[in-house]
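Case study.
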Amino acid sequence: MTIALPSAPAPAPRRQILVATAVASASAFMLIMGMLSMWLKFRAAAPTRKSADGFYVIKDWLPADLKIPEVSANVMLATIALLAFIAQWAVYSAKRQDSQHRSLALGLCLLMGVALVNAQLAVYSQMEVGLSSGAYQTMFYTITGTMLVLIASGMAFTAVALFRSVGGRSDDTQIVSAHALYWYFLTAAFTAMWFIVYVQK
Amino acid sequence: MGDQLKMTTIDSNVGSASHAQSRGTSSSLVSATGVWITSSDSKKIGRLFVGVSLLLAVIASVLGALLGFERMSASSMGLINGDAVLQVVSMYQFALVLGVLAPLFVGIALAVVPMQVGSRAVALPRLAQFGFWAWFFGVAMVAVSLVGNGGPGGGTTDLVDLYLLAVGLTAVGIVAACISIVTTVLTSRAPGMTLDLVPAFSWSALVGAAATALSLPVTVGTIIYLYIDQTHAKLLFDGNKGIDKYMNWSFSAPMTFVLVVMAFGVLAEITPVTAGVRQPLRPIVLAGLGLASAGVLGAVTQSFHSLEWTGSASDKIQSAIPYLLFNGVPLLGAIVSVAVVMLSVKNSKIKLSAPFASALFGALMILTGMAGNMILRITPAGLAGTAFEEGITLYVVYGALLSAIGALSYWAPKLWGRTLDPQKLLGLGGIGLLGTVAASLPLFVAGFANQPANVVADFSYDGPQGLWNLLNGVGHVLMIATVVGFVLLLISAIRGGEPAANDPWDAHTLEWSLASPVPTNNFESLSMVNSSEPVLDEKPSSQEVSA
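After joint prediction, the assembly is written out as follows.
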């Protein structure tokens, strides 16, 4: 015999994609934070050397002849912040059932994702050093490469949301919201990485 | 299908197996295998996790027994080839933690949580399915790499690379399944079931899975660094020698505490049912379970916080605060939850049921391991790097194994439609308890006698080394007997046992309102939930029965 419980009306719509994206974003945030903590640990443990003018004792962490292109890094920060803003525009449009602006915003997000990848490749190109040429270089390529993979995942997410939008799925605001949430996380993670890797070095 | 199920993947493969049976045995076997491989039914995915991790538990125990017997003498006994010791130790540690501890509870949670919270399916079942297969192939590749002289300190470069990739894949798989569990509890509860009404096991699954999803990515980040360095520069981590140094925290406390939170949820679920009462002070139990997951704090820092107890009073306080925060808080949470759960037994005539006994034994063993960790982190005790550390891991993992056996026997009617023989189960619980103590306690003693951890020969220390390492080996053998015995008991019940009643334990939560075994998509219609014991509410009280 089974026990009959009182039947219930239909519950409020589930937001599984949004919640799962939030948990996955938190996991990915911990990934980046863990990698940044390793960066800080190795930087703190680096031996010291005298500066070029001989007045200061500095950490022998960043090779003296290595220049990190800061302009490209700053452009990336501005781009990703703007991208998060545009992702929110897509959410706003989706909630108002404005499919034209939603698709336009998502298309712009994708375009700016391409710009981010291009800027990161420009950084690599301007540095003119190999991954294996030193401890710093290995860590730099590893952490920025991981961020690049996360950005590529965001672009894939944007592409899915865009195709659904263009295909006439006007009722899936949840996907657009989840997509925006992922870009907020990426903006926060990139900002932390930008400060530690590109500013503090 | 209702509007509320739009975002839920419902398994449409329900009839495949029975349909295939009509076409002959071999094709039915192929079809049934296909159903198991492709099914999005969380009960099947959960049972796949559980089945493979029980197999790995036997493998880990065999390796543990070999290591124990090998250490009976300071000179090698020849049970393990000297060149292979590092690989055996690595496989043993990996299998205990990422092969048994994490997937066992993830599997039970995937199978049970949707039923408990009144959902037709787990949230994002394809993600959970991906989680299982990623974990499964990760485990297989770890085994291949270690057998082929890969892993920490391994001599075959390609297989060292494979080891790193495989451990990363394993962790990604577990995180994926955990995301599915967390999303299920947060989004797929029955109407009326607010978070404070969630059953204790589902609550522990929520906090345990969330803590795992937040801490394992830190392991993955470390692996990415190790892999890139290993395959390119070999400048940062001293090549393959650094793998053990930088990944060891992933296979020891407090990381193991994060993975074991659900064991306390199992006890909190079974005890009031066994006692036949409602859980008193339920919010405190839930708070205690939440607090136990604070082990994540220690895990993500990738370092151990010890009590130095030297210098001025200020120095001592500065050392004591992080020590208590990182080591004491998870233990406090676990003690609070167990103590309050046991209050339900206080004024009731409790019958010692097999699931309750196993869950209680398991929780007590885990608490012993957590208390051991508090002692380990007292620097003047000088226990760091000794066999004491191994003892802690064994208390926690084997305690968790006992707890999982309790959980599986408790929910067997829902998962397999059978009730296991209670007397034999109780005997197995006793053997398991004995095995856990025999495997772990001697290593605590050996730690005080300075027996080094993870070394099998050519070391010197004081005391009867033969005795405690023999006991350790015997403990592992008893655990093999426990796991194999449980699996045989389960198989015999499935093949020839009587069908289980729908509510054989006179239980309290939603899953016991379903038929045994539970059909693929759990609930045909949605139920309204107004309390933490909705099924108990619908049963006549003892006064009503006597009237």
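Observations recorded in class. Chain B touches chain A through 57 residues (CB under 8 Å). The radius of gyration of chain B is 23 Å. We will return to this complex in the next lecture.
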